[in-house]
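ok new one. same drill as before - structure tokens go in, u give me an amino acid for every spot. 81 of them this time. try not to just spam alanines like last time pls lmao
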């Protein structure tokens, strides 16, 4: 997997850039309907704690937004006679 899509890379990018404070996982599970994996990570900052949710996408990447819901589609084809 591309290192820039890993959970470790994103946590370091979003939460530890200028701070040496440790981060911790405060919650992990799957969403109720789509069963998408997610992780909530918290970091302490001088102004208070910051928490972010990361979602696992079908391509294996972790992102700060959930994957788009799969929608049913209907295809129509013209008949050729």
């Amino acid at each position: 997997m591309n290192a820039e899509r890993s959970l470790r890379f994103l946590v370091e990018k979003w939460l530890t850039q200028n701070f040496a404070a440790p981060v911790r996982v405060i919650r992990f599970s799957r969403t109720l309907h789509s069963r998408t994996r997610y992780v909530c990570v918290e970091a302490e900052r001088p102004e208070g704690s910051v928490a972010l949710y990361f979602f696992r996408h079908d391509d294996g990447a972790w992102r700060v937004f959930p994957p788009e819901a799969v929608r049913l589609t209907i295809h129509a084809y013209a008949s050729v006679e």
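The chain has one domain: 3-63. and btw Residues 54 and 64 are 5 Å apart (CA to CA).
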